[in-house]
From TrEMBL:
Residues 59-99 are annotated as: Disordered. Keywords: Coiled coil. It comes from Apodemus speciosus. Pfam families: DUF1151. This is Protein FAM107B. Residues 72-99 have a biased composition (Basic and acidic residues).
Length: 113
């Protein structure tokens, strides 16, 4: 038995391939004393809000009312564009002065002079 693993120094145990996980005992034996592992419950899925949302999404999918599939970045960019347009319109409205305001400013300047 002169295999490649016999030449490796025992100090270099990280080079020796071995099974990291131990095999569970409960697979082979039907020992009633053993406590069988159970899957942990997910608190998010058991919450009432999550269940209601999931039910609503399923009903909307059956009806053909799919939610908007826009990525978050696209939504943010559209909101920024909308806000920018609104801001520009407000600034233009402030810049535009009515004929009355223009006339009043002229008279005020004349009075100050």
């Amino acid at each position: 038995m002169d295999g490649p693993l016999e030449d490796i120094d025992p100090k270099d145990s990280c080079l020796v391939p071995r099974n990291i996980m131990a095999e569970p005992d409960y697979i082979e034996d039907d020992n009633p004393e053993l406590i069988r592992p159970q899957k942990l419950i997910n608190p998010v899925k058991t919450s009432r809000n999550h269940q209601d949302l999931h039910r609503e999404l399923l009903m909307n999918q059956k009806r053909g009312l799919a939610p908007q599939n826009k990525p978050e970045l696209q939504k943010v960019m559209e909101k920024r564009r909308r806000d920018q347009v609104i801001k520009q319109k407000e600034e233009e409205a402030q810049r535009k002065k009515s004929d009355l305001e223009v006339e009043l400013l002229k008279r005020q300047q004349k009075l100050e002079q």
